[in-house]
Structures are given as C-alpha cells and as structure tokens.
Amino acid sequence: MNRFSIIAGVAMMVLPSLAEAQEVTLKMGHAAASTHIFHTGLEIFARKVDEKTDGNVKIEVYGDRQLGDDKQLLEGIQIGLIDGALVSSATLPLVLGAASFDALQQPFTVSSYEQLSAVLTSDLGDELLATLDEKNIKGVGFVDAGLRHFLSKDKPVTSLADMKGLKTRIVPIPLHKAIWETIGVNPIGMAYGEVYSALETGTIDAVEINVSSIKSESLYNAAKQVTLTGHYFWPGVIMISNAAWEKMSDADKAAVEAAGKEATTEAYALAASQDAETVAFLEANGVTINKLSDLDDLKALTASVVTTWQGKDPMIAKFTDAFAAGQ
C-alpha cells in the first residue's frame, strides 16, 4: 500500500467523525409576540436541545413574526429556506393540506391540559407528527397557547343568543368555519396580525382566541368583554425543515426528538399554570370576564361537527377515541 492510499484511508475514517461532531445552528420563528407562551415554549425546547446534544445543535428563537407569519413559515420550511418554527396546528390543514391535525381542535373533546399533553407525548402523538414527513418537515413536539375563549368588542356575551350574527374572526379553515357557522356567528377569515386593528375599527365584533394572546397582543385595549367558553385548545407544532434535519448526526436527531417530548410536557404544564394569572391580569386592565349560561347547549350544538369530522381522516377518529377513553 503506497503513502497516498494510507492518507486516503485515514481521511475516510476521520471525515465521518467530523460530520458527527458538526455544530448546527437553527433559526426558528413563530408568529406570536415575544411575550407570548409560544416564545417561552420554543425557548424551553432550545434549552433542552442544547443540553441533550452537548451544544452540537443550537437554536435561535425569533418571535414577533420576524421570520414571517404561520403561512410564510410553513412555506419557507417546506423548501428549506427557514430552518424551523413553532406553527399553530390550525394552519397546517389550510397551508399544507395536513387534515390529520384537525384532530387537535375538535370542540369540547379534551378534558384538560394534562390529558392533551399525555396524548401528544404518546405513540399517537408521534404518529401524528410523522404525517409531516411527506411534507418535507420533521415534527418534534408541541407547545400550547391555551384554551380558546370568546372576546367581544362591546356587549357582554353570556348566552348563545348573544353570539348570533356577530362578525367573528376565525382561522379560515373548513373545521373552524363549520364550528362557528353551527354556533351562529358570522365567521370572518382574517390574518392574526390584523385582529387588533379590525377590533378597533369595528370590522369585526369578536374573535375566538386564547387569553394568552389577548394579553400578549394587547387586544384588551380594543375589546373589553371575555366569555370563558374553553371550546378547544390551541396547539403549536415544533417543526424542523428536512434540509436542517439532515445536517444533524443520528445521535443529535435522537436527542432533539427527546428534547421535543420533554419540552411538550413542560410547556403544557406552564400553559395550565398561567390561565388564572392571565385572567386576573385582564380583569386588572378593565376587561369583564363572563360565563356562558348555556355552555352545555353549546357543547351539544357542536357535537355534530365532531361526528362529521371523525369520518374525514383516520387520525381524527383515533384522537377523539383516545380523549373519550380518558387517555
């Protein structure tokens, strides 16, 4: 064996080890304010990734729509222009055609943050994340913005009758359209970043939203009536582009997935702990907190939507069955 053969052989052994030790920095964005729990949740994930990969994978978190809104983030991740993001699950059916994620927002099917967290970190949660593989996206975890309620601009909403005909901002996906048309509001599809000005100008009368976003987006300055309906949760999906994913070693990939599960559990516990505190903040800033007198009627009314949607995708039936079984 000549000298050049020996050198080449040594190089072939060294190069893989160098690739395995390669440090990767991912820029990950989200569409909420930097004071929102989405930002905190993504920071929790970033910290756990750094710890579990011994610093091989580092994540920089960009809030305030710096890398784009949910649609722009999803499109950028698919083609590898954006490394990763935390994106509201509701936008995945709209932008990616990922209908399975409608499973997470069937009205009144989930009993608690704890139940949803347990299911999302189970094999069923992994199965749902795996449906993103065909979209050139690696799903690794979840962060929840919180239970959705009803924010109205002027009059208090204390019954289903009060909701009738209100111009209400929704995410314009078929599931939400079906839910809110069944309830009887006038649903209006609108970008998240336009909600504040639309409330101020009267373009909309109300918005279905979580209290964390009412606080972080200062919507309490534009609308003063919150009705606690808790109709569904608002999970965000932690995702990484395939292009960024393939830069990692196998060991780092496994560590990132483990970090995603731990971050999901921690972020859901945080979301559960913040609700009462956030409601108290809103009350201190002049918001009236109302209850719906006929909440059971609202649950009964929207049950037909759940039945219809269970037949649209196998994952939806699997999730609703798991929730009903108390898993």
UniProtKB/TrEMBL annotation:
Q: Which residues form a coiled coil?
A: none
Which is one Gene Ontology cellular component term of this protein? Answer: outer membrane-bounded periplasmic space
Q: Pfam families in the record, alphabetically? A: DctP
Keywords tagged on the record: Receptor, Signal, Transport
Q: What InterPro entries does this protein map onto?
A: DctP_fam, TRAP_DctP, TRAP_DctP_sf
Any signal peptide, and if so, which residues? Answer: 1-21
Q: In Gene Ontology terms, what is a biological process of this protein?
A: transmembrane transport
Family, per the entry? Belongs to the bacterial solute-binding protein 7 family.
PANTHER family, sorted: C4-DICARBOXYLATE-BINDING PROTEIN DCTB, PTHR33376
Q: Which NCBIfam families match?
A: dctP, TRAP_S1
Protein name, UniProt field: Tripartite ATP-independent transporter DctP family solute receptor
